Input
Amino acid sequence: GAGVSQSPSNKVTEKGKDVELRCDPISGHTALYWYRQSLGQGLEFLIYFQGNSAPDKSGLPSDRFSAERTGGSVSTLTIQRTQQEDSAVYLCASRPGQVYGYTFGSGTRLTVV
Amino acid sequence: QKEVEQDPGPLSVPEGAIVSLNCTYSNSAFQYFMWYRQYSRKGPELLMYTYSSGNKEDGRFTAQVDKSSKYISLFIRDSQPSDSATYLCAMSASEKLTFGTGTRLTIIP
Output
């Protein structure tokens, strides 16, 4: 596709359940990012993948959060044992070479009840 | 203290007015500066970027960076109702972007 695709667009889950969020980046973009956007908090960096290099996981808030990127393309963000404070919009972005070339998806709105 | 500070607004101005949006930052290593626009329930989209002090103009939009004061601005001339959105500043020293919290802007017809 022409843009970054994220699914599902909305997810409501019960506290304690695991969730998987999917990101399909723009073809050929080597870098992929996950950010979290909470109300009034701006975008918070979670994790960064670049080619075959080890991912930068420095933004993951706890060990309940993990992400993988298969074949240098699709990425999945997994949140285990979800908590109410995990409720937020999870945004994925990809870029080619330049830092300023981020393209964001529309996000997954996660609500933990 | 956050690395990037941005007034969250909300900011409401009449159509045709000049809008000024601002961010300050504390990390002197930041060298790339960007402005994103985000409509409701959409992802941010890149409006402008710059990597040096000074002004950069693109149509009705002007981005201004003052590295000595650690201050960046976005000016919107002849504002339109379609400019109503949340505007986020972002900056980078390497591969990661650090964002401001965003300013919600409403242009009143």
Observations:
- The two ends of chain B are 37 Å apart (CA to CA).
- Chain B is about 0% helix and 55% strand.
- The longest strand of chain B covers residues 85-92.
- The CA atoms of residues 33 and 58 of chain B lie 15 Å apart.
